[in-house]
Amino acid sequence: MVEKLVGTKAMRLALITILLLVLAGCAPKVRLFPDGTDPLEEQVLQGEGSEKVLLVNVRGLISDAPDQGLLGRRPSLLQEVVSRLRLAEKDAEVRAVILKINSPGGGVTASDVLHHEIERFRRESGKPVVALLMDVAASGGYYVALPADRIVAHPTSVTGSVGAVFFQPRVTGLMEMAGVRVEVAKSGRNKDMGSPFRESTKEEQDIAQTLINEMGTRFQTLVRQARDLTPEQMDTVATARVFTGTQALDLGLVDRVGYLESAFALARELAELPEDAKLVAYRDQRYANDTAYNASARLVRPALLDAGLLGTALGSGLPRECGVYYLWLPGNE
């Protein structure tokens, strides 16, 4: 009985000590899940040569906002991709990069910044880039593929959706049912444009359409410059519809329909590398029997069920923030 009491007191003392250390900020950090703070390490996926091709996953909603989920916090997709390009730029043995894209797009600015960073990497490093389109590489997902030297799509890829969209969530009907009103004092008649608490005016609708037209035109211009399409092809692309990999090839949006080995062979060809060149990835954690199909360099988020889209109001299917997106989101008109 005495031993039991002593053991209980020791346990309580240990718990109190740990609590005091935590409050004092002195406790060692214990992480049950990776949060992106560990340094990136190279992992060989295949090959035995000295020269390397880097595989970079571009997966999920394109954003510069960190992911905050139930299992911890991760850097944004923009940060994850750019950090890997920076390391590849410094490594003389990395001779080419494959971007494995599985994304329905995302924010206009985040997509444009990533496009700029990929373009800058190619220009300053002189290393070729091959984009490999997976399940979905639509809208912003295709936007970030445009700077690549070559684009390879799977036969079952969904791509295209070349255009912009402006989401404005509305809760006016719900507020009326609940008997709730919002009063706004503003310095100009368009100051609260996009407010979810009222219907848009005709002037606001025209302003939003002008803004969307400008963003959409920018996207189309980049496609025209990168892909050298005919006017007839551009007319089809400008409808902002999606295409299969084979349809995209016929339209000139991609260079080849194939699989990972096709993209790897193309990267080796562009960089003039031997067949035994390594395919490598930068991971922040180690995986046994790792392969190029491992997308776990960041928290896995299916392309059509993105964590950023799960934060929507009552399953409306719309992004939780009002704004302009290069985003393909099926089911919304």
Question: How would you describe this structure to a colleague?
Answer:
Residues 123-273 form the Peptidase S49 domain. There is one protein chain. The chain has 333 residues and is of the alpha/beta class. It has one domain (34-185, 193-327): 2-enoyl-CoA Hydratase, Chain A, domain 1 (Alpha-Beta Complex). Helices cover 37% and strands 21% of the residues. It has ten helices and 14 strands. It has helices at 2-24, 77-90, 108-125, 140-143, 172-178, 202-227, 231-237, 245-251, 260-271, 307-310, and strands at residues 41-46, 52-59, 67-69, 72-74, 94-103, 105-107, 129-138, 150-153, 158-160, 165-167, 242-244, 256-257, 278-283, 323-327. The strands form three sheets. Strands 1, 2, 5, 7, 8, 9, 11, 12 and 13 form a nine-stranded mixed sheet that branches. A three-stranded antiparallel sheet has the order 6-14-10. A two-stranded antiparallel ribbon has the order 3-4.
Which architecture would the CATH scheme give at its second level? Alpha-Beta Complex
What is the count of β-strands?
14
Oligomer: single chain
The helix content, as a percent range, equals: 25-40%
Radius of gyration: 24 Å
What is the CATH superfamily? Answer: 2-enoyl-CoA Hydratase, Chain A, domain 1
CATH topology, by name, is: 2-enoyl-CoA Hydratase, Chain A, domain 1
Q: How far apart are the termini? A: 72 Å
Low-pLDDT stretches: 27-33, 297-318
Structural class: alpha/beta
SS summary, helix count = 10
CATH class: Alpha Beta
- Number of structural units classed as domains: 1
Largest sheet: 9 strands, mixed
**Overall morphology:** flat
Q: Indicate the mean pLDDT.
A: 82
Strand content: 15-25%
Order of helices and strands: HEEEEHEEHEHEEEHHHEHEHEHE
Domain Peptidase S49: 123-273
Keywords: Hydrolase, Protease, Serine protease
Organism: Paucidesulfovibrio gracilis DSM 16080
GO biological process, one term: proteolysis
